[in-house]
Design a protein that fits this description.
The chain is an alpha/beta fold and 256 residues long. It has a single domain, classed as 3-Layer(aba) Sandwich (Rossmann fold). 44% of the residues lie in helices and 15% in strands. Helix 4 runs parallel beside helix 5.
Length: 256
């Protein structure tokens, strides 16, 4: 299946996790992938693994508005952007009363402000052509409260609503905007939260009543490739009448 031949897609947070899996998926489907991340060594590792001239690397800080605006304009001149995926994000875990102001600001600076800066710059390019698709990676934690994740939950809720508002405003100019909300997914972020021990799968799947987590009805943790498949669908012409939607991909953990 080659749904992205002749198309260019910018992915933030492309060096690892869901972003890296999506880069591989879109490349296999014929896209030119513009991989953006603040981790230059991670980008180099991605390029080494994918080994394709159709992967373009850009090390950048999405919280730097001027840098991002200038970079997106330069990218779009050479590779007119058909798609954007906001996959960059961070997590901070702490009880609410102990969550530092610095951690709170970092969550919003990267997860929310970064998504805003990149999305606005790309949307301006797409509007000139009256076409495009934007997908933001939020989380099922955007709608389901999680213990010790108040800042993360709030930031992802902001990402989800920002993206849906973008879709409402940009739809008449041909730009679709959707959200993908993963649950527990086997990424560095999950291991940061839950550890690397052999009981990880069991704990995630069975849940933890002490943390008010019910578990995963499908009985497994998602792989990054699972989430990448949903994002690729929303980017593709197969979804050309879908916008403002939130595709929850959590194995049933939040009951839909």
């Amino acid at each position: 299946m080659k749904r992205f031949i002749g198309k260019s897609v910018l992915i933030t947070g492309a060096a690892r996790g869901i972003g890296a899996a999506l880069a591989e998926r879109l490349l296999a489907e014929g896209a030119t992938v513009i991989a953006l991340d603040c981790d230059s060594s991670g980008l180099e590792a991605l390029a080494e693994r994918l080994r394709s001239d159709n992967v373009k690397l850009h090390a950048a800080d999405i919280t730097d508005r001027e840098q991002i605006t200038s970079l997106v304009e330069r990218i779009d001149e050479h590779y007119p952007l058909d798609g954007l995926v906001n996959a960059a994000g961070v997590m901070e875990s702490a009880p609410f009363e102990q969550l530092s102001a610095q951690a709170w600001l970092r969550l919003f600076e990267i997860n929310v402000h970064g998504t805003f800066h990149v999305s606005q710059a790309v949307a301006r390019c797409m509007l000139a052509r009256r076409r495009g698709a934007i997908v933001s990676v939020a989380s099922n934690a955007a709608t389901t409260p999680r213990v010790n994740l108040s800042g993360y939950c709030a930031s992802k809720a902001a990402v989800a609503m920002l993206t849906r508002c973008m879709g409402l405003e940009l739809g008449q100019q041909g730009v679709r905007c959707n959200v993908v909300s993963p649950g527990s997914t086997r990424t560095p972020m999950l291991h940061q939260l839950a550890g690397d021990d052999e009981s990880l799968d069991r704990r995630m799947v069975q849940g933890d009543l002490g943390l008010h987590r019910i578990g995963i009805p499908l009985g497994k943790i998602a792989e990054p490739q699972d989430i990448a498949a949903g994002i690729a669908f929303l980017l593709s012409d197969d979804a050309n009448h879908i916008t403002l939607q939130n595709l929850v991909m959590d194995g049933g953990a939040t009951f839909g």
